[in-house]
Design goal:
By secondary structure, this protein is α+β, with helices and mostly antiparallel strands. Helices cover about 15% and strands about 20% of the residues. It folds into two domains: about 130 residues, Mannose-Binding Protein A, Chain A (Roll), CATH 3.10.100; about 130 residues, Mannose-Binding Protein A, Chain A.
Length: about 300
């Protein structure tokens, strides 16, 4: 799992480009090694190997030519498999986390990393193979023009991007998180999460959320001075797509069960007056208007050495 975004610019609440240093914004913190990202994809004929996730994607992202319903998308992939002799590593619809792993948070239309090798990427919605846990007649799709992760009726029509292989997922169960002295340690991502009432007491604007983190760091009673507002990939890593209301991993959900959503430190490049938000009821990934006090604040810190957790 890629826990850092590739965002490298910072924007204030009015959408103006600002200096990242000491801003508390996503791009102001450690980013992945650009040399690693530059060699991320390897072309294998009409397929692309993602060296970060281990997944293999169809190079041509417009394979279905036109949008299909979710059952039609499943049948379309089955027909691809029927047309080839290969039995192992057969093509399928990606899970929502697998498709989300392709999303860039620095580029739009498409929201893929710079220099990617894919062709005919539709700047709209693509189906995942993941059903919505709360609404069984809906499934998750991702907007590859901007990066939004949302759910839609299975009779709706969206594009298809087959994948094969396996992506490493967090181990499910209560042993993933350990609570200690007011924080939650995530054994899978090596992140510490602070969910104290001083942060979650009320919804804040995006700027107020950043200020609340600074105040937390000034309070040495909390034990650390390097808390930050999580980026959108770190927030999404908390999601358990088999759960809802809230859609968080067991062992963590009780901490934030009553909130609507959480701010990330990641600005929406599609519209920089907005920042990315994780919604708690189903785990959707959308955006919030930075100047509106609609979402809550979590703090995160890490000791990750290489920046990539796969």
């Amino acid at each position: 799992m890629l826990l850092y975004t590739d965002q490298n610019m910072c924007y204030d609440v009015h959408g103006n480009h600002i200096e990242c240093r000491n801003s508390g914004h996503d791009a102001g913190f450690k980013q992945p090694d650009m040399a690693v990202l530059a060699s991320r994809y390897r072309v294998q004929g009409d397929s692309i190997k993602d060296n970060l996730s281990g997944l293999v994607w169809k190079k041509y992202a417009g394979l279905s030519e036109f949008p299909l319903s979710w059952p039609e998308a499943q049948q379309f992939v089955a027909e691809i498999n029927n047309s080839v002799k290969q039995v192992e590593n057969r093509w399928r619809l990606p899970t929502r986390r697998e498709l989300f792993s392709l999303v860039s948070h620095q580029f739009v239309n498409p929201s893929l990393s710079q220099g990617h090798p894919f062709t005919d990427v539709f700047n709209g919605y693509y189906w995942t193979g993941t059903s919505c846990a709360r609404l069984h007649d809906q499934a998750w799709y991702i907007h590859m023009g901007g990066g939004r992760v949302y759910r839609g009726m299975k009779h709706g029509s969206y594009m298809v991007w087959p994948v094969r292989g396996q992506m490493h997922h967090p181990t499910k169960g209560r042993h993933r998180f350990r609570r200690h002295t007011g924080v939650y340690f995530d054994r899978y991502t090596n992140r510490l999460w602070y969910t104290g009432s001083d942060l979650l007491t009320r919804p804040r604007t995006w700027e107020e959320a950043l200020l609340a983190i600074r105040k937390l760091n000034d309070d040495h009673k909390k034990g650390f001075g390097d808390w930050r507002l999580p980026n959108i990939r770190e927030l999404e890593s908390l999601v358990d797509d088999s759960r809802h209301s809230p859609a968080f991993e067991p062992g963590f959900s009780t901490a934030i069960a009553q909130i609507t959503g959480c701010w990330s430190s990641t600005t929406s490049i599609y519209e920089p007056r907005y920042a990315w938000v994780l919604y708690s009821i189903d785990g959707a990934v959308g955006v919030g208007f930075k100047v509106q006090a609609e979402y809550h604040t979590l703090a995160v810190r890490h000791d990750d050495a290489d920046g990539l957790n796969i």
